[in-house]
Amino acid sequence: MNENRRQILEMLAAGKITAEEAERLLAALEDPPQSANSSAGEAATPRSKPKYLRVLVEADEDMTGMKGATTVNVRVPMQLLRAGVRLASLIPAQAHDQLDSALNRHGVPLTLSQIKPENLEELIDHLEDLTVDVDGKEGNKTKVRVFCE
Amino acid sequence: MTPNIAIVQIQSPHWRGFKLWLPLFLLWIPIILLSPLIVLVLLCVCFLGRVNFWRACAAFWAISCALPGTDVRVSTEGNKILVRIL
C-alpha cells in the first residue's frame, strides 16, 4: 500500500479527519499521476518516432508440415513503407477501380485511392505492439507479432 | 542514402552455406553508363501509363533510398536465409 494512503487511513482511524476528508485526500492522491500521464507526461517525454516495422512469425511444425519451428523475422524501414504509399499514388485513377474490385473479390475490402501517407502515420501510431495468434484447424498455433521499433 | 551493400546468407544442415556480400554501389557504374537509355525507357513508360515522369522518378528514388536497414530472416527445417541491405 502507498505510504500516503496508509497515513490518510491512519488519520481516519485515529479520528483526526472525517470520512469525507479522507475520501477527498485519497481522490487527490489518485488524480496527479493520471493527469501527469495524460498531458504533462507526454509533453515532457515526447515519444520517439519508430524507425522500423517488425514482423515476427513463429509457426510450429504442425502448422507448416516441416520439421522444427519455422520463424520469419522481417524488419522493414518505415521510410520504405512511406515510399511504397507514394508509389501507390502513381497508379492511374482508371486502374484504381479495377484493383479495388479485384481486392474486394478476394476478400480484401480496401480502397487504394484512400491510402495516403497520413493514414500510414495514423496506422503507425496505433501499431504500438500488435500480436495475432492464429489457431490452426487441429489446434496448432502460429504467432504473428507486428510492432514498430 | 542509396543501398551500398547487400548481405545474403544461406545456411543448411547438410552443407556449410555461404555469406555473400554484394557491393550494390557498383551498380552505379552500369546505371550511369546506361542512363540515357533508362531515361528514354522511363519516359516512354510514363507517357504510356499517363504518369508524371518526375513523380515516378521521385517515388523510385524514395524507394531505393529507403531500402537500407531492410532485414529479412527466415529459418525452417534447419535452413536459414538472411537478406540484409546496408
> Can you count the beta strands of chain B?
4
How many angstroms does the end-to-end distance of chain A come to? 35 Å
Average pLDDT, all residues of chain A: 74
Task: State the low-pLDDT regions of chain A, or none.
Answer: 33-44
Low-confidence stretches of chain B: none
Number of helices of chain A: 6
Please report the two chains with the greatest interface, counting residues with C-beta closer than 8 angstroms to the partner's C-beta.
A-B, 25 and 25 residues
Explain what you see.
The complex is a heterodimer of chains A (149) and B (86). Chain A is an alpha+beta fold and 149 residues long. Helix content of chain A is 51%, strand content 21%. Chain A has 6 helices and 4 strands, in the order ααβαβαααββ. Chain A has helices spanning 3-14, 19-44, 61-64, 78-88, 93-105, 117-126; strands at residues 52-59, 70-77, 129-135, 141-148. Chain A has a 4-stranded antiparallel β-sheet. The longest helix of chain A has 26 residues, at 19-44. The model of chain A is unreliable at 33-44 (pLDDT under 50). Chain B has 86 residues and is an alpha+beta fold. Chain B is 41% helix and 30% strand. Chain B has 3 helices and 4 strands. In chain B, strand 3 and strand 4 form a beta hairpin. The radius of gyration of chain B is 17 Å and the shape is elongated. The model of chain B has no long low-confidence stretch (mean pLDDT 90). Chain A binds chain B through residues 51-52, 64, 66-77, 79-80, 82-84, 86-87, 89-90, 92, and chain B through 49-52, 55-56, 58-60, 62-63, 65-78.
